[in-house]
Amino acid sequence: MKAATEQSTVEGFDNNNNNNNINNNVEKEKKKKRRSNRRSKQNPTSSSANEICSVSSEFFGDGTAAPTPTASPMKQQGDNAPYCYDHQHDDTTLVSIPAAAAPMHINEQSPPQFVDAQTQDSWNGWNGDLVPSPPQIGFCPQRCYFSPHWPMEAVEMALEKGDVFKASFRVNAHNRLEAYCKVDGLPTDVLISGIPAQNRAVEGDIVAITMDSFSSWTKMKGSNRTCNNYATPEDCSLLTEADDVAGNIYKGKGELDKDKDTNYDSADCRNRPSQNQEDTEVYPNPNDSCHFPEKKYAYEDSGSLGPVSHLDPVRPANDSFDGQNNAAFVESLNMSSCSKQIEVISAVQKMCSLVNAFPSKRPTARVVAIIEKSPRRERIVGQLNVKQWISVKGVSRKDAKKNKNLVSDNEYIQLTPIDPKFPKMMLFVRDLPEHIKKRLQSGDVTTEMDLIAAQLYDWGEESLFPRAHILHVFGKGSKVQTHLDAILFQNTICESEFSPEAMTCLPCFPWEVPEKELQSRLDLRNLCIFTIDPSTATDLDDALSIEKLPNGNCRVGVHIADVSYFVLPGTVLDDEAQFRSTTVYMLQKKIPMLPALFSDNIGSLNPGVDRVAVSMLLDINPAGDVVNRWIGRSVIQSCCKLSYELAQNIIDGAVDFESSNIIGESYPKVHGQFGWPDIITSVKSLCEISNVLKQKRFNDGALRLENPKVAFLFDEYGLPYDLILSERKESNFLVEEFMLLANTTAAEVICRVYPDNALLRRHPEPNMRKLRDFVAFCQKHGLKLDTSSSGQFHRSLELIKEKLKDDSVLFDILISYATRPMQLACYFCSGQLKERKHEWGHYALAVPFYTHFTSPLRRYPDIVVHRTLLAALEAEELYLKHRKALLVNKEEELQRCFTGIIFDKNAAESVEGREALSAAASKHGVPSTEILADVAAYCNERKLASRNVKDACDKLYMWHFLKKEILLSEARVLGLGPRFMSIYIQKLAIEQRIYYDEVEGLSVEWLEATSSVVLSMSAHRRAFRRGSHNKWRAFEEVAFVVDPYDLKVALDGSDGCENRDPNSRTEIDPAVFPLTVHLLSTIPVVLHAVGGDDGPLEIGVRLYMSSYYG
């Protein structure tokens, strides 16, 4: 019965496609006849399509002859065959039909020849990397290389009928021929294979796609124990397309790409590397050595950084947010009417049933239109291919000096983006900046060392490559500052100074709390309040306190800077903060969301000065339950600024407050009436309660996935001189627990009081297909994993950790892969998902609602949450005031009805309650549902861009460190096949690949039976690499070979040994040939820097081998 159902599903799907195909074929035949008639009139002597053709010449845009491509046989493609790449010969080989064409100006028009689905295969061998010289390609006016995009009217009609689907377009960073589209509602991504099928879409575009027939669907990577690398089942389960695709685009108002593998949200309370990651990255990066650390908590963004990942920006810098600009992007996956939604949902449901019935098959499709162009088109960074351009012109540097007219108006030069997800682009030489044209005229090949900012402005059907023009020149690619500037440009980070109008919104400095605020706020200056932050942090937005109550409970105070008191809605400062959305951290620098005068001084909870705050006083019993609470505005004074290191020393008992050395310079000053005994007692008490809260949280089903992170040590010039693996300690978890509790409490209050206007943060359940792959991998290696819930997942990992206590590296690898099924956490407006409250929850934290409240100095969503919470407090006050006026006994105490432990729903829904809530919302600027949804979407985009900047900076500094010296490390083999191996490098906690196919002097033997590979040195020499004009890669690109004797002398020499570079002394021994590699085996590797002036920055890895034979 099941088989019959599946068959009918397929037949129904294919019948729909067949009907479309029949209509399409009729139209194609008509077009063929018309084109054939036109061609016969224009060129009656041209050869037929099935003849073997050879292009005698191509022409530059200015009419000069270009080098002649080599022809090769190809199968008959029909009259509309556009272009065929010859797999068997040089990568630059082109075959074109018709064979001869008169030279034409590139802007001249001619009857187009369209690409249909049948010619798709002829493109699959072309990778877009090795191409003919720029002026001769992509602009032949007698044929079109791509199908025309559908008109928007046709797209809208097809979307309504469910004939096409709207999706975000992401490109495989390792193979640009593969792109993936996420269709909302489908359990897996749709493959867009080949350049013609991608039809000029680029990374980050919102596209319309039409599904291929079921018979055209491909096997899912990892299915049937095969994959592109012909690897083992384990390899396939790990090396999926998700590992290669690094882009991520938020699809709408708080909606996110649900198939993204990195980033799952945790408790992002502070975004500075090295604090607790309550809400930002899944895994904290405690870089206390950095000058500008960001506080993080391990549950906030839930992202696995893995090998330094690169995420993509989603908003141009000059695009101010007004609630309307983002409308198209926000509504990208929503239909405007119920009837339209029903048709689309029906089509998606049919696709879902088909995908679920055949889980080993991946849907394929082709792009028919670009609905919304990615903002990344405006911010391409790359390098000019100057040597190639000069080579094509046949002009040497000496000749260039003689020929002052080297540059002509219609010539093109090629730009190669540093992001491999983007295609190479063509630039009019005439449009280049004058200083670049002068350098080209002189034949200066160093021009291609510069990093260039460009804008992609056109990609016509007749062009193999898009056209672009230069916006800016950053400088030499080998300079750190050049790349920092490029990173900010790519991610649309606003680095400009705050406007004078914004600065006038701030009070004068020094600032004191006004008397009016002292009278209206709760005075908590009598409490022992202190901050715990990275040692170099300057924006202190949270502080803690604790009191022991007579009943045995503890009253924990969480005090957050009252930023909303200063940043009023609708002001210029508020607009600036909203536009920037988040503080951006770059290891050695931070770009603040708010002016430093405010974030580091007036608004910061600095010790020894009075500050305004929003406080939560939480009464917690010994079991970790909050039995009572008070929330409100307060005045506090922090008595001390503790670092994480000092707090940890206090927890470990390493600080003796009776000892005289505690007064030394290494310890911070204690202000006010309190002393070190008070602080030490408070820290230890808070630690005890945080452990109870943490254990309770995990018992309730929370999940923690945490990878080791690399921390850099910087010299006085701001450059890294060493790196270490850092881990979070108990002091980090202490702060994290209370920030998580405060955020959850704030979410509970605002979503109850304002159910349509609460800014919340959700974390969807993992991608089930990828989770099943991970479970299968664990089972293959004898590790039992229960993923039925987040709690069971966590408990299983704890048991595996105990089982692998002697192999911590393997456990780190498992945690790295456990994050890949996790989806991104995102902000959303509660009213947006009012009918889907089951989607409000946070998977990793196992709570029904969650938000960000504790970092308003560096996150705009926290400011919005503060305003909503304060509106709830004021509405509660207004309502209770009204109720009290009706009481006979005026002394009767009324319970807090909106913000207390017990929520009075009847009071909120009463006439008086609704009036109070409406008035308070208007006063505090609580946004409407529509505006708040836009704010959520924009904040998601900016948060992703900020994450992208941090990842790129991590990679940049790692590259710079390796540029100075190579690094030896052991590595574990994660994936294995006849072409490459994927390895996990322990010292850097990253994953890399080593390609060993087609290497001069290296033979590769793939042993299918044992899923292993044997690498041996070979004396056999190959002349050419298959499908490339380059020779086989040099042996040195894959292996770093040392002489054991020289190594022994270097290690054992006594004279001057103490002055030798400590990195030269290593316990890692080189391996020997022949080298047999199995899955999960350990091998020695050498890490080095690649690129800079001559290409994108990469972390190169080679085998560390001995010249002796085993």
UniProtKB/TrEMBL annotation:
<feature type="binding site">
    <location>
        <position position="542"/>
    </location>
    <ligand>
        <name>Mg(2+)</name>
    </ligand>
</feature>
<feature type="binding site">
    <location>
        <position position="533"/>
    </location>
    <ligand>
        <name>Mg(2+)</name>
    </ligand>
</feature>
<feature type="compositionally biased region" description="Low complexity">
    <location>
        <begin position="15"/>
        <end position="25"/>
    </location>
</feature>
<dbReference type="InterPro" id="IPR050180">
    <property type="entry name" value="RNR_Ribonuclease"/>
</dbReference>
<keyword id="KW-0378">Hydrolase</keyword>
<feature type="compositionally biased region" description="Basic and acidic residues">
    <location>
        <begin position="252"/>
        <end position="271"/>
    </location>
</feature>
<comment type="similarity">
    <text>Belongs to the RNR ribonuclease family. DIS3L2 subfamily.</text>
</comment>
<dbReference type="InterPro" id="IPR028591">
    <property type="entry name" value="DIS3L2"/>
</dbReference>
<feature type="site" description="Important for catalytic activity">
    <location>
        <position position="541"/>
    </location>
</feature>
<dbReference type="GO" id="GO:0046872">
    <property type="term" value="F:metal ion binding"/>
</dbReference>
<dbReference type="GO" id="GO:0000956">
    <property type="term" value="P:nuclear-transcribed mRNA catabolic process"/>
</dbReference>
<dbReference type="GO" id="GO:1990074">
    <property type="term" value="P:polyuridylation-dependent mRNA catabolic process"/>
</dbReference>
<dbReference type="GO" id="GO:0000932">
    <property type="term" value="C:P-body"/>
</dbReference>
<feature type="domain" description="RNB">
    <location>
        <begin position="521"/>
        <end position="875"/>
    </location>
</feature>
<dbReference type="InterPro" id="IPR041505">
    <property type="entry name" value="Dis3_CSD2"/>
</dbReference>
<keyword id="KW-0460">Magnesium</keyword>
<feature type="compositionally biased region" description="Polar residues">
    <location>
        <begin position="1"/>
        <end position="10"/>
    </location>
</feature>
<dbReference type="Pfam" id="PF00773">
    <property type="entry name" value="RNB"/>
</dbReference>
<dbReference type="GO" id="GO:0003723">
    <property type="term" value="F:RNA binding"/>
</dbReference>
<dbReference type="InterPro" id="IPR012340">
    <property type="entry name" value="NA-bd_OB-fold"/>
</dbReference>
<feature type="region of interest" description="Disordered">
    <location>
        <begin position="1"/>
        <end position="52"/>
    </location>
</feature>
<keyword id="KW-0464">Manganese</keyword>
<keyword id="KW-0540">Nuclease</keyword>
<dbReference type="InterPro" id="IPR001900">
    <property type="entry name" value="RNase_II/R"/>
</dbReference>
<comment type="function">
    <text>3'-5'-exoribonuclease that specifically recognizes RNAs polyuridylated at their 3' end and mediates their degradation. Component of an exosome-independent RNA degradation pathway that mediates degradation of cytoplasmic mRNAs that have been deadenylated and subsequently uridylated at their 3'.</text>
</comment>
<feature type="compositionally biased region" description="Basic residues">
    <location>
        <begin position="30"/>
        <end position="41"/>
    </location>
</feature>
<dbReference type="InterPro" id="IPR022966">
    <property type="entry name" value="RNase_II/R_CS"/>
</dbReference>
<keyword id="KW-0963">Cytoplasm</keyword>
<dbReference type="GO" id="GO:0000175">
    <property type="term" value="F:3'-5'-RNA exonuclease activity"/>
</dbReference>
<feature type="region of interest" description="Disordered">
    <location>
        <begin position="251"/>
        <end position="288"/>
    </location>
</feature>
<protein>
    <recommendedName>
        <fullName>DIS3-like exonuclease 2</fullName>
        <ecNumber>3.1.13.-</ecNumber>
    </recommendedName>
</protein>
<keyword id="KW-0269">Exonuclease</keyword>
<dbReference type="Pfam" id="PF17849">
    <property type="entry name" value="OB_Dis3"/>
</dbReference>
<keyword id="KW-0479">Metal-binding</keyword>
<keyword id="KW-0694">RNA-binding</keyword>
